[in-house]
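#onboarding

Welcome to the new folks! Below is a worked example of what a typical request in this channel looks like: someone posts a single protein sequence, and someone else replies with the predicted structure as tokens. Don't worry about understanding the tokens yet, we'll cover that in week two.

Example request:
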Amino acid sequence: MTKRIGLLTSGGDCGGLNAVIRAVALRAAAAYRWEVFGIRNGSMGLLRQPPDAECLDPARLDVAMMRLGGTILGTTNKGDPFAFPMPDGSLRDRSQEVIDAYHALRLDALIGIGGDGSFAILRRLAQQGGLPLVGIPKTIPRRRSVMTRRSPSQPKRSTGCSRPRPATIA
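Example response:
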């Protein structure tokens, strides 16, 4: 039986998301013969009835899509399913609806591309629903230090900057 994986992007938009979507879908299809379903607009796509998802056909995922800005799946940084804002201003826990949609799509695992906030929500959903989850980070939290290669005898040193910069590994 073919495995089915759900893939969603969540949080703010950034460059490189389409390249990640393409890489996941092509690798899953070519190496494992798995189907990848792109879930539109993050967890919001799982709150729709029926769930807003489509099979990512490797034949349609050409190199040109990597040059497109944003994400072909859409994303959202609103609508925490554990405290979802309702039209009357109240908040409602809709997490079970997301889990039910995951099962309605007959998924075997979920891959989320997002940052700390998105992963906090996805982790709670995975724990509550017993969903296998893989997270692909798209941010570098500011609290992490810059990583550099050094020998154990060398002292740690500051980069002298207040924001993270890409590390150079020699």
